[in-house]
Specification:
Layout (H helix, E strand, L loop, with lengths): L1 E2 L1 H5 L3 H10 L5 E3 L2 H9 L6 E3 L8 H6 L3 E4 L2 H14 L5 E6 L11 H13 L3 E7 L12 H18 L6 E3 L3 H6 L35 E4 L2 E5 L4 E2 L5 E2 L4 E6 L16 E4 L2 E6 L7 E4 L11 E5 L10 H8 L3 H6 L7 E5 L2 E7 L2 E5 L10
Parallel strand pairs: 1-2, 2-3, 3-4, 4-5, 5-6, 6-7
Antiparallel strand pairs: 8-16, 9-12, 10-11, 12-15, 13-14, 14-15, 17-18, 18-19
Length: 369
């Protein structure tokens, strides 16, 4: 299962989903009904699983879109059964059962799971698609809790067998589980952040040859000569101590370049580190042009890159600067940042703003990529 929730972790869900399916994925995972509907609108007819809780009022829309629904309570299963009778889907509506083995988010308890499974399996309007759980700390490879969760999951599975329930596919492994080999002996494994070349944690590295799928570039739109005493940005928090050059770069916190990077972050100009000076604005930043660097209007500025030769911060370094994790960095890249999709190093399509139409880009990319 390729997990493409949150707009494929900020990358562009329809394009990532299509690439993943072409590469062999058999299922797609999303978080919300609207995320599944977007994929359907792009002509994707593969199984799409709603991995988390949805509101009972959304059950009918989910069924109409042919989405597979995860239940963890009688409350939602009631609504799914009613919706299935309305749409009279052929094939039946696929339902997944999530079991809470210790993460204590969405899911049924061990006691609830048996009754829910029996109801799903006995309803001719439903297809019992899978039973699964989710790890709490699999990105900490030496901790024992993941093993305890797997044991709890197996207890539930055995209880279902004892109750005479015909078991569907099982799954437990997320990206951390896949990379460490825990929970991978079931029919399904869910690739999330690892699908995008982002390691689950510093303790769980990617496999050799894997790297981040995303980089961010912008361009210089103004060069600014600063004299000693000149200030930059809102509230004049930066003051030049000597003559220097500044470069205006159109990216800001409305794009996902967080305000906490004020005076802390850096970008790359001409292969050199260019620190952010002054406060990050909603739409732009000013950086110091390094001594000796070539900088002209329209020159590319690398904001994030996993290429160590680029001089730009990696996703992990950006996460450290923001005091967060790598996932929040990439999912925080806002919609108005255009996505340029590459295959074999060549641009094949772009998405700009709310325009979700695939458009080839034979020439240079847009200002924000």
């Amino acid at each position: 299962m390729a997990v493409v929730k949150a707009d494929a972790y900020g990358h562009g869900a329809p394009w990532v989903a299509r690439a993943a399916l072409n590469a062999g994925a058999q299922l797609l995972g999303v978080a919300t009904v609207s995320e599944g509907q977007v994929l359907r609108e792009h002509g994707i007819d593969a199984p799409i699983v709603l991995l988390g809780s949805i509101d009972a009022t959304e059950a009918l829309a989910a069924c109409e879109a042919g989405l597979e629904i995860t239940v963890g309570s009688e409350w939602l299963l009631d609504s799914v059964q009613r919706a299935a009778r309305v749409v009279r889907a052929a094939p039946p509506v696929s339902v997944h059962l999530k079991v809470d083995t210790g993460l204590h988010r969405y899911g049924a308890t061990a006691l609830e799971a048996v009754a829910l499974a029996a109801r799903i399996a006995s309803d001719p309007g439903l297809r019992f698609a899978s039973i699964f759980t989710h790890f709490a700390s699999a990105d900490e490879p030496d901790e024992p809790y993941t093993a305890a969760q797997l044991e709890e999951f197996e207890v539930v599975v055995e209880a279902l067998r004892g109750a005479g329930v015909d078991l569907p596919s099982l799954h437990a492994a997320n990206s951390a589980g896949i990379l460490t080999g825990r929970g991978t002996n079931y029919a399904i494994a869910r690739a999330g952040n690892a699908l995008y070349g982002v390691p689950p944690s510093a303790d769980v590295p990617l496999l050799p040859g894997m790297c981040a799928a995303i980089s961010i570039e912008s361009r210089i739109t103004r060069l600014i000569s600063l004299a000693p005493g000149d200030t930059v940005g809102y509230n004049r928090k930066f003051r030049a101590n000597s003559p220097m050059r500044g470069a205006l770069v159109p990216i800001g916190y409305a794009d996902g370049y967080r305000r906490v990077l004020s005076g802390r972050g850096w970008v790359c100009i001409d292969g050199r580190r260019a620190p952010v000076i002054g406060r990050v604005s909603m739409d732009q930043i000013v950086v110091e042009v390094p001594d000796g660097a070539r900088a002209a209007l329209g020159d590319v500025v690398t904001v994030i890159s996993e290429n160590p030769q680029s001089g730009a911060p990696s996703i992990g370094e950006m996460a450290d600067l923001m005091d967060t994790n790598a996932y929040e960095v990439i999912v925080g890249i806002r919609e108005r940042v255009p996505r340029l999709f590459l295959r074999g190093g060549k641009p094949i399509a772009a998405r700009v703003g709310r325009d979700a139409t695939i458009r080839t880009q034979p020439g240079a990319g847009p200002t924000r990529v």
